[in-house]
Amino acid sequence: QNHQLRLGCSRRRAQRLVAMAGSGKFFVGGNWKCNGTKESISKLVSDLNAATLESDVDVVVAPPFIYIDQVKSSLTDRIEVSAQNTWIGKGGAFTGEISAEQLVDIGCQWVILGHSERRHVIGEDDQFIGKKAAYALSQNLKVMACIGELLEEREAGKTFDVCFKQMKAFADNITDWKNVVIAYEPVWAIGTGKVASPEQAQEVHAAVRDWLKTNVSADVASTVRIIYGEVP
């Protein structure tokens, strides 16, 4: 259950990745998914509290919802806390859902939206996810907006088409991008042992940035942070 971000590129590759990531601070996020117990999460928080973090890096963790309060009460303020999902609007008679207002109430700063498991296992579509993002932002949550293609879509040469369609749903609903981080996570690299090369990730990052310049604004294209995610 110890998911780690592994960076293994040369200085030149690292410089190219930084250029593609956008301006502003580096960003590292950890999605704990449906993992952990009170005991194991307490140990993980202890390890995080003991870590030395660079000042130019934003670090965010996303524990399961039932452990958010435990994490918030014991984790250093240097690391921000995210939810893994939220409802599309104001709370009410929506069994099993968590509203953005509730997340803010318990001190959450971020939410992950559009993750491939929500898209392909739960069945959330692009526009539903885009509307979720708009509502979360309206309630002062920051959003990790996830995009990515299936293996068959990559093999069919549809990577850009899929990612642009997902981006359009976000752009149709988001008016202010300053609290958005775009996370490109190819579905075929999640828990499969396959890893996208730095060049593959950079190619998509550059294409998404160009899409933003054409379809949103040059300012958003130059400032929004675009990151790469996977679980080896």
Explain what the structure shows:
By secondary structure, the protein is of the alpha/beta class. It has a single domain (57-85, 95-228), classed as TIM Barrel (Alpha-Beta Barrel), CATH 3.20.20. 44% of the residues lie in helices and 16% in strands. The chain is built from ten helices and seven strands. It has helices at residues 11-21, 38-50, 68-74, 100-105, 116-122, 126-138, 151-155, 159-173, 198-215, 218-223; strands at residues 26-31, 57-62, 79-83, 110-113, 142-147, 180-184, 225-228. Strands 1-2-3-4-5-6-7 form a seven-stranded parallel sheet. β3, α4 and β4 form a beta-alpha-beta unit.
Beta-strand percent range: 15-25%
Secondary structural class: alpha/beta
How are the strands of the biggest sheet laid out side by side? 1-2-3-4-5-6-7
CATH architecture identity: Alpha-Beta Barrel
Number of strands: 7
Q: What is the CA-CA span between the terminal residues?
A: 12 Å
Q: What's the CATH H-level superfamily name? A: Aldolase class I
Give me the CATH fold name.
Answer: TIM Barrel
**Silhouette:** globular
What low-confidence regions span 5 or more consecutive residues with pLDDT below 50? 1-19
Number of domain units: 1
User: Main beta sheet: strand number and arrangement?
Assistant: 7 strands, parallel
Number of helices: 10
Rg (CA only): 17 Å
CATH class: Alpha Beta
What's the average pLDDT? 91
State the order of secondary-structure elements, H for helix, E for strand.
HEHEHEHEHHEHHEHHE
GO molecular function, one term: triose-phosphate isomerase activity
Family: Belongs to the triosephosphate isomerase family.
Protein name: Triosephosphate isomerase
Keywords: Isomerase
